[in-house]
Amino acid sequence: MNAIITASELGSESAAEQPPTLLDVRYQLGGPPGRPAYAAGHIPGAVYVDLETELAGPAGTEGRHPLPDLSVFTAAMRRAGVTAGRDVVVYDGGQGWAAARAWWLLRWAGHTRVRVLDGGLAAWTAAGGPLTTEEPPVAPGDFTPAPGALELLDAQGAAELARRGVLLDARAAERYRGEVEPIDRVAGHIPGAVSAPTTENVAADGTFRPAAELADRFARLGAKEGVEVGVYCGSGVSAAQEVLALAVAGVPAALYVGSWSEWSSDGTRPVATGPHPG
Q1: Which of 124, 139, 143, 164 lies in the 20 to 30 Å Cα band around 84?
Q2: What pLDDT digit, counting tens, does each position of 226-262 carry?
């Protein structure tokens, strides 16, 4: 199954006898909660899922967006109607970060039939898709997690992968170089990591670049078939979008969920700065 779905494809599948389960996970880093935006208009049939409380655990030493408690995530997915054997489509406002986080969690937890709406809600409305303010009646799902279907990195695993494979840093290049750090206590990057901002994964309209272009981009960064690849960002959200872009390109990759927010919280861990891996 493809990792992404176009707005036109979603329109066709939504009219089918068994439409996909739709999850609205709109989220903006440092911005207001996504539920008011959902209430103001969402794709018909979509159920809102909150990233901060249902797709992540409380911030702490494991980072700003650690893995959620499995029971919390399971309850959220069942409330949203996620069921074994039924497709799931996830969307956000168009940035792709939050949708990819939900996609990654579901894939990691063993649900194989999940895709991200390419370009998010903006692509849906641009294609003439309708919106509604009505919350759909949803029969509880039977989602049962089986964690471990996708590779997960911790801090030590990320450091080791940077030495033996390719560890991509999905943050903005200036944060990678250590020139600015608006959120975390230390500026810089994990030694050995390669700068690979998520902004280069998408076109101007927010949709993913073609698979061949993405494959070429990642190959130039050293991430290609036969090479072990991992990704991190600030707190494990935008990095999920990079893992998704790699999946579109046909390159499997592990996610370091704790990311820089966890790495930099421990003053004993090494930090590199400048434009090179270090």
Answers
A1: 124
A2: 999 999 999 999 999 999 999 999 999 999 999 999 9
Which residues does the annotation mark as catalytic? 233
Q: What is the mean pLDDT of the chain?
A: 96
**DSSP state, residue 60:** B
How is residue 9 written in tokens? 């494809």
- pLDDT confidence band for 106 (50 / 70 / 90): very high
Is the confidence at residue 272, as pLDDT, over 90? yes
CA distance 6 to 174: 32
Residue 231: both structure tokens together: 């990704």
Token pair for residue 25?
């996970």
Distance CA 245, CA 213 (A): 10
**197 membership: H or E segment, kind and range:** none
Neighbours of 25 (CB within 10 A): 28
195-220 in b/e form (b: 16+ CB < 10 A) is bbbbebbbeeebbbbebeebbebbee
Torsions phi, psi for 61 (to 5 deg):
-65, -20
CA distance 209 to 179: 28
Look at the alpha carbons of 133, 139, 144, 149 in this order and tell me if their dihedral is positive or negative: negative
pLDDT at 36 over 90: yes
> Concatenated DSSP letters for 141-177?
P-------SS-EE-HHHHHHHHHHSEEEE-S-HHHHH
Amino acid type, 208: F
